[in-house]
Amino acid sequence: MVNVTASGGDGRLRLSLSGELDHHSARDGMTRIGRALDDYMPRECVIDMSGLSFMDSSGIALILRVYRRMRECGGRLLIEAPQNQPRRVLDASGIDRVVKIQDTVKGADK
Hints:
The structure is a single chain. The protein has about 110 residues and is an alpha/beta fold. Helix 1 runs parallel beside helix 2. It is globular. The chain has a 5-stranded mixed beta sheet, with helices on both faces. It has helices spanning about 25-40, 55-70, 85-95; strands at about 1-10, 10-20, 45-55, 75-80, 100. The protein has a single domain (about 1-100), classed as 2-Layer Sandwich (Transcription Regulator spoIIAA). The protein contains 3 helices and 5 strands.
């Protein structure tokens, strides 16, 4: 199961993911993320993966949906601090061609 914690303000939304993101939990995760995007209406969205221990291709689909939502409103998406296994999935997908990935967590709120 994936846990999603949203925080932010001033046009920035941080989505902290923890647990496991797989096909069983992706739909619920996207629902929670969609609500957070609607509530915060950010110009920048950061997905913090430092607490995510596992991700399959469903995670890539989730990231692409968030990317499209952010692009539609003129915003941008950034991924921070993926652990080893999720990082391998990200690298294999080539998603770094459209979404910037940082290996560390930046920002004062973490």
